[in-house]
């Protein structure tokens, strides 16, 4: 039986795990790391870099790296969404042929599902390196409040990566499984999942291995990145000249550098009482360097981010309200997501519920571990876990005046089916359009348009003679189908919202074929060869990271002092890194080992 895997495709970091063996475990990368930064970059010569290498590329050329793309998967491009992204990220959002969101990084414009597919492919390769065989069966997690379009786009990304998705599993449910609540726990659990880019709260009733989701709430544009951005603005406030501050604010490399410093400081004050921050900023060679020397204390950090923590608690209250519960009714609170390491958040959660939250499982790994447990259950047909999820957001029909008539209410138990009867807008109408929308808004413009059903060839008669029955059906994974039938004539139409809602079938197949070719070119067949290649590439990766860091340091030195030696050495490093990238992807093990030594020779003794 081939092994199965669980994947947490995260906004900031992703992880892959397996439950094949005595206990669930995270699958380490070839570099020895347990998490893959959810970053994809395109180098000057058009080569793909993923994870830490993309992070380093982003410090030099932030516009060449796609980050936090999970926030845009399955979204439709709008001018408002593009403007919002422009304020947050150095890349641009572009509309695809089907109005899907695409991301322009460097010279290339890529569909979001393709970028996610690249991340999934990288995680799949890590699993295959471990097992020495092809791995396809997987459970992939998604936020509980993901829309139908976002879920189908995630499946599309998995298809591009060559994965067979056994199930899309809601992240909070996966976390609860990782905490072992399927084994003997009886009661109510609240999952507090604050990651890098999204926030989810789920309330679950668990008994005898049955996971019943009572309510979900969340914010898809709230996470650790927002805390980092608050710190970036605080750091920029140390620049007293307003004109200089304005230039620095719009310099992408400067902002990316400050974000890196902010994230590091945030982590440090989560375990220590203060963090020293030192930076030299320069947005334009015509102006002098701007030094920043400051100290971030834990009390001041907590004061800065308190409004954001209060926002998180308001979403917790929303979830409890929709579950008809009070804080005292919750038996255990599970912490998930890297941001839950922040002491202030843990303190506020403990105070809110009157009990210490459960943090036994690494918050960055819980979701992937839970997904792996469920994947093993599905493949090996073992375990008695029953997952009862709910509708993530309301589904309805746009009616006259741009209003929305809800048909499927948010937090309805899955699977579910509901119907409503509608009438044509006027007498004599022979064609009826049924616009389907998703969201909590009362007006269609406040919701997401999902699809449109069209009933034609109706008999021209009084509008009240045509009863148009519209039925929404959603399966256990939250996948939607909508049907409409005219009871008078019997004319009917049905749409199944599947993985073809984002990319055209031909383009999706082409991307999947391209990714398969990429895997074939970089995947050895023999298990021992895999092990040796893994070891060699781990060493090369370490050398590449060291040289890239040196390149960044020299770049800063050259910008600040115009030092000729720094510029000269920096110029030598660039072609070496390009060569290393090519060797890492297509070179033999001997070539990889030789390249490692060549890079190490460039580093100062």
From TrEMBL:
Biased composition (Basic and acidic residues): 515-531
Signal peptide: none
GO terms, molecular function: ATP binding; ATP-dependent protein folding chaperone
Statement: the UniProt record of this protein carries the keyword Nucleotide-binding: yes
Pfam families: HSP70
UniProt xrefs under InterPro entries: ATPase_NBD, Heat_shock_70_CS, HSP70_peptide-bd_sf, Hsp_70_fam
Key words, A-Z: ATP-binding, Chaperone, Nucleotide-binding
Key word Flavoprotein present: no
Coiled-coil region: none
UniProt region (Disordered), positions on chain: 511-535
PANTHER family: HEAT SHOCK PROTEIN 70KDA
Family: Belongs to the heat shock protein 70 family.
Protein's recorded name: Molecular chaperone DnaK
């Amino acid at each position: 039986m081939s092994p199965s895997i669980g994947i947490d495709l995260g906004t900031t970091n992703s992880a892959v795990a397996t439950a094949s063996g005595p206990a669930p475990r995270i699958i380490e990368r070839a570099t020895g790391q347990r998490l893959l930064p959810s970053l994809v970059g395109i180098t000057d010569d058009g080569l793909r870099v993923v994870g830490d290498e993309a992070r380093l590329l982003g410090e030099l050329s932030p516009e060449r790296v796609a980050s936090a793309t999970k926030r845009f998967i399955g979204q439709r491009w709008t001018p408002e969404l593009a403007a919002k992204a422009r304020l947050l990220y150095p890349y641009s959002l572009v509309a695809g042929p089907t109005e899907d969101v695409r991301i322009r990084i460097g010279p290339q414009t890529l569909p979001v599902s393709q970028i996610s597919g690249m991340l999934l492919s990288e995680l799949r390769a890590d699993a295959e390196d471990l097992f020495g065989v092809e791995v396809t069966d997987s459970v992939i997690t998604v936020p509980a409040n993901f829309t139908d379009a976002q879920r189908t786009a995630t499946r599309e990304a998995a298809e591009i990566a060559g994965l067979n998705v056994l199930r899309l599993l809601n992240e909070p449910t996966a976390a609860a499984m990782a905490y072992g609540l399927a084994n003997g726990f009886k009661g109510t659990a609240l999952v507090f999942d604050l990651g890098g880019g999204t926030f989810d709260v789920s309330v679950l009733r668990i008994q005898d291995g049955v996971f019943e989701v009572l309510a979900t709430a969340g914010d898809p544009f709230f996470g650790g990145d927002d805390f980092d951005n608050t710190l970036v603005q605080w750091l920029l406030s140390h620049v007293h000249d307003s004109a200089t501050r304005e230039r620095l604010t719009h310099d992408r490399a400067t902002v990316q550098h400050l974000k890196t410093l902010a994230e590091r400081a945030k982590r440090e004050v989560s375990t220590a009482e203060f963090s020293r921050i030192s930076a030299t900023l320069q947005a334009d060679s015509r102006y002098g360097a701007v030094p920043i020397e400051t100290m971030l204390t834990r009390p001041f950090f907590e004061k800065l981010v308190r409004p954001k923590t209060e926002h998180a608690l308001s979403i917790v209250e929303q979830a409890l309200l929709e579950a008809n519960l009070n804080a005292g009714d919750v038996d255990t609170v599970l912490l998930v997501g890297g941001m839950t390491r922040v002491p202030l958040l843990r303190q506020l959660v403990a105070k809110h519920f009157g009990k210490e939250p459960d943090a036994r499982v690494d918050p960055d790994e819980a979701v992937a571990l839970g997904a792996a447990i469920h994947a093993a259950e599905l493949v090996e047909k073992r375990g008695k876990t029953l997952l009862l999820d709910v509708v993530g957001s309301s589904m309805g029909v746009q009616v006259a005046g741009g209003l929305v008539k809800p048909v499927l209410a948010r937090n309805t138990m899955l699977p579910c089916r509901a119907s409503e009867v509608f009438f044509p807008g006027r007498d004599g109408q022979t064609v009826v359009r049924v616009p389907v929308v998703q969201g909590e808004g009362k007006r269609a413009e406040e919701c997401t348009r999902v699809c449109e059903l069209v009933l034609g060839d109706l008999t021209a008669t009084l509008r009240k003679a045509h009863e148009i029955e519209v039925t929404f059906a959603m399966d256990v994974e939250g996948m939607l189908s909508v049907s409409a039938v005219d009871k008078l004539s019997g004319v009917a139409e049905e749409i199944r919202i599947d993985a073809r809602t984002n990319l055209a079938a031909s383009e999706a197949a082409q991307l999947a074929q391209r990714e398969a070719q990429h895997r074939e070119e970089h995947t050895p067949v023999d298990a021992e060869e895999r092990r040796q290649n893994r070891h060699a590439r781990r060493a090369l990766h370490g050398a590449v990271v060291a040289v890239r860091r040196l390149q960044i340091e020299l770049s800063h030195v050259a910008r600040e002092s115009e030092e000729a030696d720094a510029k000269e050495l920096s110029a030598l490093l660039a072609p070496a890194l390009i060569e290393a990238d090519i060797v890492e992807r297509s070179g033999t093990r001997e070539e990889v080992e030789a390249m490692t030594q060549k890079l190490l020779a460039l580093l100062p003794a």
